[in-house]
């Protein structure tokens, strides 16, 4: 009897919540490239906007699909595939600085205002950089399951140093493999309302090349925002996943303490809570966004 493939075992054992998947479109960002965007309307034309930035190795929809519908009851909700991920921008190199500029370009392209930028894991790092590079576009931050730096002990420094050197040597291979995956994802993205949510989720996950993940991971190792976190001057909330084995909860809490006035919202879950424990994560996210939005209005009246 043939043994089941690892992917089939994963498919049968991993719970993926079923919710409607928003339709999206490819958007050209002037002078930068094309990325896949979903834009879900809020309850009114004046609804504030939440721009959602996804985790490493994911897509905008794969990280956030359990939360979009709930958020859209009060906010306009926008996702995008960040560069080298899914159907994101294909560039010569991966840079967190470029990712932040991409977000700013999308805000301008869509004419968004009253923008709250929310990021998960890698997306939380990019969200920090969006404020740093484009503070005039950001009215609030929600940072989920993320940190301000990764190289805090000798083992991490050794890992990221090796990763950086390896990925530099493999940059051209990474880019070609990433372009191939992106083209395949675009060809397969005809039906965004699948009958089997697990098949859809697996296709989204496989749309990002492992080579792209390596390049992004190397870039994350170079991130260090602690020197300027105390300058963040917009309402900020930090969602802490307390059983996280990828980014320890203590580091996430340290991020919250380093930002003046940041609120902290704990979730009893691990690093993949955005999907695998969405029943816990989404309420905490809604609370964090609502807190930032309320403080954003107070901040604007000063």
UniProtKB/TrEMBL annotation:
Domain of life: Bacteria
Segments forming domain AB hydrolase-1: 48-275
InterPro entries on file: AB_hydrolase_1, AB_hydrolase_fold, AB_hydrolase_sf
Keywords: Hydrolase
Keyword DNA repair belongs to the record: no
Gene3D superfamilies in alphabetical order: alpha/beta hydrolase (3.40.50.1820)
Entry keyword Hydrolase: yes
Any one Pfam family match given in the protein's UniProt record, by short name: Abhydrolase_1
Coiled coil start-end: none
GO MF assignments: hydrolase activity
Protein name, as recorded: Alpha/beta fold hydrolase
The organism of origin for this protein: Nocardioides plantarum
């Amino acid at each position: 009897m043939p043994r089941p493939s690892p992917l089939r075992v994963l498919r049968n054992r991993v719970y993926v919540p079923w919710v409607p998947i928003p339709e999206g479109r490819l958007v050209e960002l002037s002078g930068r490239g094309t990325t896949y965007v979903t834009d879900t309307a809020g309850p009114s034309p004046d609804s504030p906007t939440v721009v959602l930035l996804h985790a490493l190795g994911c897509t905008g929809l794969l990280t956030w699909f359990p939360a979009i519908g709930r958020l859209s009851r009060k906010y306009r909700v926008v996702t995008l595939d960040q560069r080298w991920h899914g159907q994101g921008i294909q560039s010569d190199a991966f840079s967190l600085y470029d990712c932040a500029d991409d977000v700013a370009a999308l805000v301008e392209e869509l004419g968004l205002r009253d923008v709250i930028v929310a990021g998960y894991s890698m997306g939380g790092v990019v969200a920090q950089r969006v404020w740093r590079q484009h503070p005039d576009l950001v009215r609030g931050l929600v940072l989920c399951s993320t940190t301000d730096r990764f190289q805090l002990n000798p083992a991490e420094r050794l890992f990221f140093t090796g990763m950086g050197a390896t990925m530099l040597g493999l940059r051209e291979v990474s880019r070609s493999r990433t372009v191939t995956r992106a083209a395949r994802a675009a060809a397969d993205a005809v039906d965004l309302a699948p009958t089997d949510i697990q098949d859809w989720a697996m296709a989204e996950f496989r749309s990002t090349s492992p080579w792209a993940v390596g390049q992004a991971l190397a870039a994350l190792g170079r991130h260090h925002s602690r020197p300027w976190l105390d300058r963040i001057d917009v309402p900020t909330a930090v969602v802490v996943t307390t059983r996280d084995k990828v980014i320890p909860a203590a580091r996430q809490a340290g991020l919250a303490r380093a930002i003046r006035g940041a609120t902290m919202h704990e979730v009893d879950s691990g690093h993949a809570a955005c999907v695998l424990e969405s029943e816990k994560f989404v309420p905490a996210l809604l609370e964090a966004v609502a807190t930032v939005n309320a403080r954003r209005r107070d901040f604007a009246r000063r």
